[in-house]
Design goal:
The chain has 261 residues and is α/β, with parallel strands linked by helices. The chain contains 7 helices and 11 strands.
Amino acid sequence: MPYPLRINGLEKSYGGQHVLGPIDLDLEAGTITAIIGRSGSGKTTLLRCLGGLEQPTAGRITIGDGQVSPADIGYVFQEPRLMPWLTVAKNTGFGLAGFTKPARDLAIAEALELVGLPDAGGLLPKQLSGGMAQRVALARALAPHPKLILLDEPFSALDPFTREQMQDHLLHLHEHYGATMVLITHDMDEALALALRIIVLDGPPGRIIGDFSPDLPSPADRVSAAFFAWKRRLTALFTRQSAPPPEAAFSDQQPAQENFP
């Protein structure tokens, strides 16, 4: 299977303090990978390195055979970060400067239709609910058809009902656009509901202590026995007092605890 996103020996330090790595990871094309872990485990630092917002201290990140470029990436933050003076349509089209006007208009209309806001193009951000604003942020990230979508806890500020709606909506968007997605989340339910693969970080320094591919249907049945069994299995990793060394990281071939399925 193709692995368009490769992370080799990635490390990050701030002021001599080692906070992340080394991280080695290959991500399969067109899948959603969730990265979970406690606060301080390096999740957001890893995502910022992937998105070019931070320069790694060591290591290499590639898509296909080349370096990651800004044109390859769509980024969705915890908050929508919409420009308040621009309409929804202009916010959505902000990353489309290189498109012709017909192509830009088509990409904006397609993205807003898919996030469920086809008639909201003329609104200003102050006229939107929190859920609507985050839908616009998703539309802005997806409109240029990037190869890689990075999501940094995009639904954490929403109420539980809206959050679950947005999670289901993200699966629909992923099916349409087919981009490789990397999702940072504290929410194990969200990770299990959305991701084909779940990477568990712990630290500092942040490093991989678990790598799982839950065999759950999509969309996942959140009240099934299998869903809860996987949630217990992931939780077991965080009952340890400290992270094991990298060579002891758990995977599907090495269960986190023998009494879990």
